[in-house]
Automatic annotation (TrEMBL):
Species name: Sporolactobacillus putidus
Keyword set, alphabetical order: Membrane, Transmembrane, Transmembrane helix
Protein name per its UniProtKB record: Uncharacterized protein
Segments traversing the membrane: 7-27, 33-51, 58-76, 82-101, 110-129, 135-152, 159-177, 183-204
Highest rank taxon of the organism: Bacteria
C-alpha cells in the first residue's frame, strides 16, 4: 500500500485526539460523557487503511461493532429503561453481511430474504414494545421496495402499476389509521396515479404507433 506513513499518521492522530478528548471529559466532569461523539467520528479516517477488498470487509465489520457499541452505551447511559438499541441491530448486521456477500447481495433471492427478515424483525419489535401504535407499517412499506425494484426493474409499466398500488394502499391504510375523519389520502392517490399513466402513454403508446406506421408503409 502506498503512503503507509501518511495513513499511519492519520490513524495515530485520530486516536491521540480521541484519547485527549476523553481525558478532558474525565477531568472536567463525568456527568455527561460527551467525548464519545467526536471520538466515534474520529474513527472515520481509518477507512483509508482498509480500501482494498478484504480490508473493506474487515472495516465494515469493525465499524458495525463500533456503531453498535456506541448505541448500546448511549442506550445504557441515557435511557436504560427502554432498549432502543434493538432497533439499530438489524441494519448494523445487514451492512457487513452485504459487504461480505459482495455481488450475491444484489440478487433477487437475497433481497427477498433480507426484506422478509427486516419486516418480520420490526413487526415483532412493534408488537412487543409499542403495540398501541402500528408503526411497523412504515418500515414494511420501505423494505418492500427493495425486492420489488429488482423483480420488476425491466418491466417499467408493471413496476409503475404495482408501485402505485403499493403507495395507494399505504396512504389509504395510514389515513384510516391516523385520521379516519378526514379523507386526505385522495391527494397522494391522485398524484401517484399519473406514474403508470405517463409510462403507458409516453413509452408504450408511441412505440405501438411507430410499429403501426411502419406496417402501413410496408403494405
Amino acid at each position: 500500500m502506498k503512503n503507509n506513513g501518511l495513513l499511519g499518521f492519520i490513524a495515530l492522530g485520530s486516536m491521540m485526539t480521541a484519547v485527549f478528548l476523553i481525558a478532558v471529559n474525565l477531568v472536567t466532569g463525568f456527568s455527561h460523557f460527551w467525548a464519545i461523539y467526536p471520538s466515534a467520528f474520529l474513527m472515520c479516517p481509518f477507512v483509508l487503511l482498509f480500501y482494498h477488498d478484504k480490508g473493506l470487509k474487515f472495516f465494515s465489520l469493525i465499524i458495525s461493532l463500533v456503531f453498535t457499541g456506541l448505541c448500546a452505551f448511549q442506550n445504557f447511559m441515557e435511557t436504560p429503561g427502554y432498549p432502543w438499541i434493538l432497533y439499530v441491530l438489524a441494519p448494523a448486521v445487514l451492512g457487513p453481511l452485504m459487504v461480505f456477500l459482495g455481488r450475491r447481495s444484489l440478487t433477487r433471492k437475497f433481497a427477498s430474504a433480507a426484506a422478509s427478515g427486516l419486516i418480520s424483525y420490526y413487526l415483532a419489535l412493534n408488537i412487543f414494545f409499542e403495540s398501541g401504535y402500528p408503526w411497523a407499517i412504515f418500515t414494511t412499506f420501505a423494505f418492500l421496495w427493495w425486492p420489488l425494484s429488482l423483480f420488476l426493474a425491466r418491466k417499467p409499466l408493471t413496476f409503475a402499476s404495482v408501485g402505485s398500488g403499493l403507495i395507494i394502499l399505504f396512504f389509504s391504510v395510514l389515513n384510516e389509521m391516523t385520521t379516519p375523519e378526514t379523507i386526505w389520502a385522495i391527494y397522494p392517490v391522485f398524484l401517484v396515479a399519473w406514474w403508470p399513466l405517463s409510462i403507458f402513454y409516453f413509452v408504450y403508446c408511441p412505440g405501438k404507433r411507430a410499429v403501426g406506421t411502419m406496417n402501413m408503409k410496408k403494405s
